[in-house]
Amino acid sequence: MKSIIQKIIRLRNPNFKFDDALNTSALLQFIWIQSWSLIRGIKVILFLKNPKGMMLGKGVEFFNISKIHYGKFLRLGNHVHVSALSKNGIQFGDNVSFGAFSRIIVSTSLNDIGDQIKIGNNVGIGEFAYLGGAGSLEIGDDCIVGQYLSCHPENHNYQDMTIPIRHQGVSRKGIKIEKNCWMGSKVTVLDGVTIGAGSIIAAGSVVTKSFPENSIIGGVPAKLLKTRTHES
C-alpha cells in the first residue's frame, strides 16, 4: 500500500519518498486526511471550475472566485481565506501549497481595488501567511517559505500634517520575489522590494529594499550578509 500511495504523491512531487521509519498508523491517518481534502476540493465544481486535483482543508473560503485561477494540485490548509477582489485576479501555478490560517487578499476596500497576486509553480508557503496584492505581488517558481510570511505591496501617504493619515491615500509599487528563494519564518517584505532569484532570507527579517540574485540577507531592517558565491 505504501508504494501505491507513494506513486500517487509523485504525480505532484516526482522526488517524494516515504521515510523508512514511517509507521502504518500514521500512513493511514495521512491517507484519511488527504482523501477528505480531495473531496472538499470538488466543491469548486459548483462555481463551474475544474478542481485539477485541488486539496482543501476545513473552512477554506473563496471570495470573487471568478478571478481566481490555478494550476494542478493546489493545496490550501485549514481555514485559508482567498479574496480576489482585484483588477487582475489571483493566479496560482501548479503544485502550490499554503499552510493553515493563511490569508491571500488582494484588496479589502471597494473604492480602491488592488492589482493582483501571482504565485509560480512548486511554491510552498507555511502557516499563518498574509499576502497582500494591492500594488501587485509576484512570487516565482520553486520558492519555499516558512510560517508567518507577510507581504505588503502598499504604503500609506502621511506627508500632510493637517489631514489624518487614513484620509491621505496610498502609494503602490509592488513586490517581486524571483524564483528559487528560501525565506525563513516570520519574514516581512514591504512595498517596492524585488528579491533576486536564488536568494535566502533569514527568519524574522524585515525587508525594506531590493537585493540582487543569490543574496543571503537578514536583520531588521534586512541587510546583505553575504552571497551564495561567498562574496561579502
Count of discrete alpha- or pi-helical segments spanning 4 or more residues: 2
CATH topology: UDP N-Acetylglucosamine Acyltransferase, domain 1
Strand order of the largest sheet: 1-4-7-10-13-18-21-23-24
How far apart are the termini?
50 Å
Percent in helix: 10-25%
Strand content: 25-35%
Query: H/E order of the elements?
Result: HHEEEEEEEEEEEEEEEEEEEEEEEE
Superfamily at the CATH H level?
A: Hexapeptide repeat proteins
CATH architecture title: 3 Solenoid
What best-fitting shape do the alpha-carbon axes yield? globular
Structure description:
The protein is α/β, with parallel strands linked by helices and 232 residues long. The protein has one domain (50-227): UDP N-Acetylglucosamine Acyltransferase, domain 1. Helix content is 11%, strand content 28%. The chain is built from two helices and 24 strands. The chain has helices spanning 2-9, 24-41; strands at 55-56, 61-63, 68-70, 75-76, 81-83, 90-92, 97-98, 103-105, 117-119, 124-125, 130-132, 137-139, 144-145, 150-152, 155-156, 170-171, 175-177, 182-183, 188-190, 194-195, 200-201, 206-207, 215-218, 223-227.
Concise account of the structure shown:
It is built from two helices and 24 strands. The chain is an alpha/beta fold and 232 residues long.
